[in-house]
Amino acid sequence: MASPVVREKGLRDPLEGRAFLCLVLASVPGALLLLVLIVASYGAWLFFILIGALAGWMARGIARGHLRANAVRVSRDQLPLVHEALRDACTKLGMEEPECYVVQETLWNAFAARLVGRPVVVLYSGVVDALLRKGDVAALSWLVAHEVGHVAAGHLDASRSLLWLGGWIPWLLLWHSRRCEFTCDRIAHFVTGDGGAGRRMLVFLGVGEENAGAVDVDRLLRQWWTHRDELFVRLGVLYSTHPPLLARIEHLGEIGR
Description:
By secondary structure, this protein is α+β, with helices and mostly antiparallel strands. 63% of the residues lie in helices and 8% in strands. It has 11 helices and 4 strands; from the N terminus they run αααβαβββααααααα. A 4-stranded mixed β-sheet has the order 1-2-4-3, sandwiched between helices. α9 (217-227) crosses α11 (245-255). The two termini are 30 Å apart. The mean pLDDT is 93.
């Protein structure tokens, strides 16, 4: 369930609700088609659906077990700097701390997921190590708050799993995913109160640890404004689960004013 702070502070991206509504409406014919298939097949399709659901549940359970056996769970006594960022985000958002793990992976990435009924935040060691080497605890806090934002905004709620029924219009599903990312950027900005930390984090994702300090953000934004309306840029965005990094940097500048 979404944190009331997200609603009270107006942290949800203005277009996320519209994308969610469109996806719900698209789910109706998807559900009707599924019902017709179940009836027409005398329940055979229901059997395959249940098998698929069981396989998905097993896969998520195995993924959670893998984390518990191979990653380090963040706590007050384990990776305290990361835990401080997690605790601060959850306190400001009025929610319980989800399970949080750091896993060995050189990629700069992090994600939040619901695994066997519980929300889990996973941080890859590549990004955590790089930010700590830079001494940029603020950017690390922003990253943690962004992932916690998915939990706070209700993006991992079990009820949302039914939205796949609207996936027969994939562009709607992807649009909703991109607006959810903007929501989490807004939540991270609220938690840290530091738009600069978010922009640095996104620049790090774009060019890596060593070159991030040499990037001129104003020039980067002019690059975005120059190319954002080009056909292949628009097509790339249309088929992406995440907004372009440069669009997210622009968005952080807008909400920080």
